[in-house]
Amino acid sequence: MMIASGVAAIDATALATAVPSIVADLGGFAQFPWLFSIYLLTSAVTVPVYAKLADTFGRKPMILFGLAVFLVGSLLCGVAWDMTSLILFRAVQGIGAGAITPITVTMVGDIYTVEERARVQGYMASVWAIASIAGPTLGGAFAQFDFWRGIFFLNVPLCLLAGWMIWTRFSEKVERRAHRIDYAGAALLTASMTLLILGVLQGGHGWAWDSPQSLAVFGSGAALLAAFVVVERRAAEPVLPVWVLSRRLLLTTNLLGFFLGMMLIGLTEFVPTFLTITTGAPPILAGLALGALTFGWPLAAAFAGGLYLRFGFKPTTVLGGVLIVLGSAALAVTSQTPSIVTVAVVCFVIGAGLGFAAVTSLVASQASVEWNERGVVTGTQMFARSIGQALGAAAFGAIANAAIRGLGGDERDPATMTTASGWVFVAVTVAAVLLLAAALLMPRVRHEPAPE
Predict the structure, then answer these.
(1) Burial bucket for residue 340 (CB in 10 Å: 0-12, 13-18, 19+)
(2) What is the DSSP letter of 240?
């Protein structure tokens, strides 16, 4: 499962450093942001569908299907002949990635006890810590040797290895019975979320927020979403059951995941750029400062299990929320005096908070349901995180652009970037406060250790 997660993690971090080489080879500079947007879009909208199918047919066929699609998409990206074809094949990769992350997290919930899950989720989080270092290094190396296609070809052996290990090592018992697949609900959810996320990603960039294109995209998305709600109320086996958002524990943990996604995209997008421009640090060093966040995450997760078994899920999640708020506020305050060491320390504190809050809330939601509901519950939380990332990318980008325009429009000026990043980090702090509020609204649920 760690190898499967590593496939998506390394691909995401390695591609960013190879963009100049890709543009030099294929052209299409104006289109290159779509390399990331289309991947985020297709991977996000397919999560709820995969999650429901995993509860219906089992985890194993769905994760193997996702790895296979990601492998095919990687091969196609490796032979892309222009920017348009590369963007199209990145969409195929995203369709595969939509299965990988939520189903691996669900499988952890299946295999390990509640006592063990926090520690194992820490192992899964450590994959992103490794990728934050290995990914940019690999991407830079491939770009240095003018072989950016190697980034995508590297996914092939990793997908094959992960698929073989899951095929031979993972077994599950799935109740064989007739199912009524909610095709209409799946189609409406995918279409509505595609339009809404597309509108968020392109608003203020591809078109103005109040333009006819924006109104048409958001209006169509909202109409399809309303139709989806109507269909789901009548479906025998809805792809996204109403109870997922009606139970207080699941509602609060999904809200927590949403604000967590907003925070992560804000930090990921702006911390490296902020340090590179304001301190003159090389991109790899700036990336390592952000990487301290993904080191704090698994370390805190290793201790989270003992805390929530002793004190409960809510107190442990609230502790994480407090650390996240303190770290985010410190980042906003110290942004006016840029320092790589300070940012690294603050990111480590935020990562520790995420280790307590994100892992504990996920384990709490998984522990509250049975096997045949765990995929939907896990997928919904991953989906909420993806929606948070999409909205966060748009919101923080708009805040930064407004600040830069107000200061003369020179985004390469250190003083301008310091001020603009400071406003973004204030917005990240607001998201952190809302995350803490969601943690405080969680019901008190204790888990009694299972008998040996």
Answers:
(1) middle
(2) S
